[in-house]
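Example 3.
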Amino acid sequence: MRPLKAIILIGGRQKGTRFRPLSLELPKPLFPVAGFPMIYHHIEACSKVPGLREILLIGNYQPSESIRQFINNTQREFKIQVRYLQEYTGLGTAGGIYHFRDQILAGNPEAFFVLNGDICGDLPLAEMYSFHVERSDGSQMTLLGAEATMQESLNYGCLVENAATHHVVHYVEKPSTFVSTKINCGAYICSPAILRDIAAVRRHHQDENFSGVNGDGSLRSIESISLERDVFPELASLDKLLVFYTEGFWSQIKSPGSTLYANRHYLKLYHKTHPNRLVKNGDGQATIIGDVYIHPTAEVHPSATIGPNVSIAQGVTVSPGVRIRESIILDNATLQDHCCILYSIVGWNSVVGPWSRVEGTPCDPNPNKPFAKLQSMPLFNNAGKLNPSITILGSDVQVPGEVIVLNSIVLPHKDLAGSFRNQIIL
Amino acid sequence: MKALILVGGYGTRLRPLTLSKPKPLVEFCNKPMMLHQVEALVKAGVTHVILAVSYRAELLEKAMRKQEDKLGIKITVSIEETPLGTAGPLALARELLTTDSDPFFVLNSDVICDFPFEEMLEFHRGHGRQGTIVVTKVEEPSKYGVVIYNGESGKIQEFVEKPTEFVSNKINAGLYIFSPQMLDRIELKPTSLEKEVFPHMAKEEDLYAFDLKGFWMDIGQPKDFLTGMGMFLKAIQQKNGAKLCHGPSIVGNVLVDPTAKIGADCRIGPNVTIGPGVVIDDGVCIKRSVILQDAHIRSHAWLHSCIIGWRSTVGQWARMEGVTVLGEDVEIKDELFVNGVKVLPHKSVTVSVPLPEIIM
């Protein structure tokens, strides 16, 4: 049997700005959700697909210690080859794949997965592969699809399907008017032949001296090719795009707020995949409510109450009488006595003083609507006011005792002098 | 000697507390507001206190019956059919006030200070005219009517309402002593002492000012109730510090009823009053607040500038601040943030209220 490969598109510095201030410290794909970097979950899912031998991370982050260490750790843990292929510039979701086609085709893989780094979910990779093998004639690509509400679908790639054959007959990325409630989840499996179609799109661009625009209206280079904007509409017209649906947990991770949603779902998934990662209540230990991940090196006082849906990273100190709910506490943060952390991310090495309250507003999908997805709200609303969101303390932020930091974003290395509400603190 | 206390109406400014109790019975520093005045009056030799009330309050009358026995004095509740302002009630109680020729005290019921009744009497007898009003220094006289008087004799020259430029920083403190002849100036109809009676008395050189030493506060609304509490505790600390609570979890001036229980790892104070039967669990921080009888503050809560009503419960990790007032028997659920909110009695608050609001 020929091997399988996987590509994880991790983007670059100029991407992931919506994820600031958290992405100021660490490439966004390495941000920990449920205790592990976002793309760790992808790699873990890939490692469970039989025959998948190699994972290529494609992006244009400068190689860094954090990336290098992450690769080493995951290679060792999953006994799978992981390599980082750095683009010289942002080449778009298809441009990077095309640029590194020789690396992808080395070893003659039968097919390769392509996963966007900023999605999360219970990705049914093996099922996608079986579906692809069954339905495809070896020249096609299968994308993972999901159902969204009419209004939300406009924020995603929308597709129209031939229900009998599961062919995508029409594809539009982020349409301005309603097209379909079927959306693209950003996970694909491709037959190698698909690279020829990407090459054709690229040639076409060059012939036309094409200068396209990005989603945000900025010009992009000739080299840049987008799977969603350039390739899928073409594949749809050639009957080369198939869709496989999932009803499992899936979401994009665009804004920091969506990490809490992803955190909650990955923790829930641990019941099935890694029950040992979830903390259990025990004598002389902190009170645990619901799903909680605590790194073994974190020190948690027995009088603290934690959960539901909390992840605590390594080296964190949780002092007596602390309450944490629906939050992510990053490496080496210190939460002092009686403080209360709700719907927040506490950054690396930050300190929250005694009796302080750090609180955000959840931005969960509407629970009353079927298929509702997480909405990544813009930072500011039409009135120019900050939309209430989760509270984020960047790295090395000092929150004094007895204050409240509500619905605020605090950039790294700040010493707060008092209480703050609905503010970005530079 | 006699004294008349101007209680007036429903005490709406101190709602929601006054929805459960007449204002004179609301505890200020663990003692009904009224009793601070009545006890000081008794000490100065007053044997008959008349409460001028413009509504019928059975609770108040019942409470006063009890105090009569306890203090060995007579307390009469004088009820106005229609509110008579600050002067009218004197006319209504004329017969009670003129049984002898002694001067009598008149007090605004919202005023708290170190009551100088004996000195007032001495001063009043010294100048021999119809009235003495107590004046106190304030920082921002422009908010009040100020009193202009002769610094040596105390004779009042005039009153200036809300002055636009500095003329004096002394204001009417709401404590008076009058000779019975003064009652001839008042008819039985709604009248204001301050606006309609005093200016005439001043013009006729019948009114003198007595300068109050020490603290003074009108505690008729929650914000000032808390400020006044801080002043009162400071005065206790200076006079008899042993009455205050001391201990490792106590910071500054804190008054705790002996029947209250305080848990471990708390930080209470400064300027906190804790009433009888109150239970404070472990790890609670309270500053500048009043916890009324039988309230329960659960673990790790943080309270600043709050009045917690009788039998109310504050949940774990709740944060309350900004002159939040809970009425009687209110419940604040765990982990909520409540800021500047007035909660009416018997309510359960289940979601955070980050901005000032009234919860019906």
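The mean pLDDT of chain A is 89. Residues 263-425 of chain A form a domain with the UDP N-Acetylglucosamine Acyltransferase; domain 1 fold (CATH 2.160.10.10).
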